[in-house]
Amino acid sequence: MNPTNRNMERATRIFALGAALLIPACATSPTPARDGSARIDPALAVATFDSAWSIINRTYYDSTFRGIDWPGVRSELRPRAAAARTVDQLRAVIRAMLSRIGESHFGLIPAELVAAAGDHSGADAGASSGDVGIEIRIIDGAPVVWRVDSAGPAYAAGVRTGWIVDSVDGFSIGPAVREALALSAPRARHEALRIAGARLAQRLDGDSGSTVRLALSNAAGQPVRLDLMRRREPGVTSRFGNLPPLNARLTSSRIPAAAGCVGYVRFNIWLIPISAAFDSTMQELADCRGMILDLRGNPGGIAGLSMGIAGYFVDSIVPLGVLRTRGNELRLVTNPRRVSFSGRAVRVYDRPLAILVDRQSVSTSEIFAAGMQYLKRARVFGDTTSGQALPALMGLLPNDDVLMHVFSDYTLPDGTRLEVRGVIPDAVLPVTRADLLAGRDAALLAAARWIVTGD
Predict the structure, then answer these.
(1) Residue 21 has pLDDT above 80, yes or no
(2) The domain 129-232 belongs to what CATH superfamily?
(3) In CATH, which superfamily holds the domain spanning 1-126+233-455?
(4) Angle at 236 between CA 26 and CA 27, to 5 degrees
(5) Is residue 113 pLDDT above 80, yes or no?
(6) In the chain, pLDDT over 90 holds for what percent of residues?
(7) Is the pLDDT at 312 greater than 50, yes or no?
(8) CA distances (Å), 359 to each of 112, 178, 429, 442, in order?
(9) Please, which residues bridge with residue 129 across strands?
(10) pTM for the full predicted model
(11) Helix axes 87-99, 42-59, angle to 10 degrees
């Protein structure tokens, strides 16, 4: 096995997801399997707290904890864990502990969310997971329909981009949005808005065949009330470690252009099923004048896949970035694609590449976009990403909650950290409601124009 393949084998084990963004959307039912208000045995509460603290103490990439008195945090918060009488009280203590570190990719996934999604992990995994075919963004303080799948029930009922989602099954995030907008710190404000949007989006998903009631405001501001039956969620169901089943899906198309076409590829998460689909798509679009890779809304996934995807566009082994754990260093490098999945010899795609990102492009999406931008192999369009690029692992706690914890730092080859900073597009073009109402995608249009004209 050559060094590049060894790097790939190690890196494919590195999983980094924006949990607050992703996990609410992958629960198949808005009703948890267990109530967080359930009482918890004090001994179990202390064991769970100790386990979370010890995992981080053992694996966090900086043994000095960047100056944080980590033993002192344990001494301060452990008595509160011992005093917890409900599951939610314990979770609040553990989350307070995680907040002391002040970095992304620390999180606590409740056992009931994992269990609820796991109910569909059998032979026909994901068969009961359903959606209505829309995605939501908080724009100008309102939850707005950002994408509508033309094959979904919402589109068939007349829902279009730019509409405001007032409530889902009677649930509204108006109060949460107002509280978020009152926060003075931009990062805290963005995170609060993101979580509020995720909580609303969670309620759009459920068992396929079930009904969800939407209250919306259309382009003219008129109220629209719809009862929609959830379809089976499209994509290939995949599992990774302690996470619930996740649906990976890739779509592609040809955008007509002078003397040819521009290829467009979008996938929703960096998981193994994407690899073969991406390979086939690249062969199908190989004649296009340029390629647009849309990572907007993509919350990350397996970091090692970034090396393989980069290899479709870079013809030599060059660094994408560096992962540093407490005792080791792993260099992410491009892995040039010479042979297709079917065994046919192929050439690396050497035409223009544009990458689309936004505030919901997280983790591996940031690592890939920043690395390709650093190599000057791609031009990035859209909005600055969230700056949550630290690789993380999942650990099962004694109370069956799942702890997501950072174990590695990530920098570009020149030492630049993406954490907090994020990926800054070459052309900053955030989504606006006016564009959505007009059916216009400014970032996509600008990317296609650059590929065709160079402007």
Answers:
(1) no
(2) PDZ domain (2.30.42.10)
(3) 2-enoyl-CoA Hydratase; Chain A, domain 1 (3.90.226.10)
(4) 10
(5) no
(6) 65
(7) yes
(8) 28, 19, 11, 16
(9) 207
(10) 0.84
(11) 20
